[in-house]
Amino acid sequence: MTKKLFPLVLAFLLGCTDIPSDICEKTEIPSSSSSDDGSSSSSSDVGGSSSSEGGGSSSSSDVGSSSSSDDGGSSSSSDVGGSSSSDDGGSSSSAEELPSSSSAVPVPQHTLIINIDPTAGGTVTRNPAKTSYDHGTEVIVTAEPEAGYAFAGWWSGATLVEEAIEYAVEMDGDKTLTAKFELIPPNSYLLEIHVNDVHGGTVHHSPSGATHVSGTAVTVTAEPEFGYEFTGWSGDATSTDNPIEITMDGNKVLTANFEQLMSGIFTDSRDGQSYKWVRIIDLIGTPPYNKIWMAKNLNYDVPENETDVCYENNPSNCETYGRLYNWATAIANCPEGWQLPSDAEWTALITAVGSNSGTKLKATSGWNAHATHGNGTDEYGFSALPGGMMLAIGFRGIGEIGGWWSRDDSFWPPGRRMYHDESIVTWNEHQKGELYSVRCVKD
Q: Which of 59, 110, 158, 244 has the most CB atoms around it within 10 Å of its CB?
């Protein structure tokens, strides 16, 4: 079976065609009721959709209204509107935030245990100063050696994970760290290493160890993390050389300085394609937002896989808009070091961008003209494009709709859409067999 025909057949089988409506029809977020005039209406704390006598769609919410879009679906003109159902696949919510649930899911808790070896060698502080943390919390740990001791690194079991005194720990599970200290022997000097930004990178030196015999030449190397660049050394040595050689003729304090980058280019090692990436920041939010996103739709042709295609099987559409993927293929094929964003990561992005998020994230060209919307302002360099989608009824929406997956696994995985005639980003439930675009986010 060819790559051209397979997606249509697959989408047909997983779609609603020839399936009884009581099985296929999706339940909307708002509850519905019948009005005296025979029309149906929907109400919700965050807005709903209702059917008017003229067959249109409107919202019963005080905080958002919905309107009929050019693709036959229903969408909202408010950043905090309600939900709607359309014939373009799945159901959509016009809110830029997933509707709240009456039963919140508890956030997993993780413990951080820090050992000190030897106990007389020094102390450790942590920020936040707790022992149990919400999943995903970042904890900054700092070692302070006692007089006569030198800090010998952060260790996880038998593995040295960081040589700098400051270390950022991501609480994605229970963690146990050991802060090791060593006595400063006679005729030896202490090498103390810092970083200006715990996220910026790591530092290693050779020979290893916190103390070195007088006259020893120590090579110190800074390794920036993705999205940062090394800008130089400060302290007892001032240089932009990397690595740098330090002669231990006394105690030395050295700081590696890293600078955060706002954009760049990376190359996918699987096929050599290059992608722009952007860092999107909101320092005012709680918590502050700082995340790296691909600024171009994924265009990786998965080997021996027939569920990723170009729109209308035209390779030029892949060059412009990237490929379209079903959910299973999308979740497994971001480049190494990247992943399909979660629903929560989409929500955090939209919250950070603020009102009219669709306009701010859409590219400045490539969207079909509209009286009040069309192209965006691309204020963050995200450059969202309308790559369309592949549904049970075929390809549709190029130039007018951009749809993207999230990695959340459910019968109807949530995703996001932007429309040429809307200023917002909508929340949608997609069928797993449908094909949408992919944006990857940095791990």
A: 59
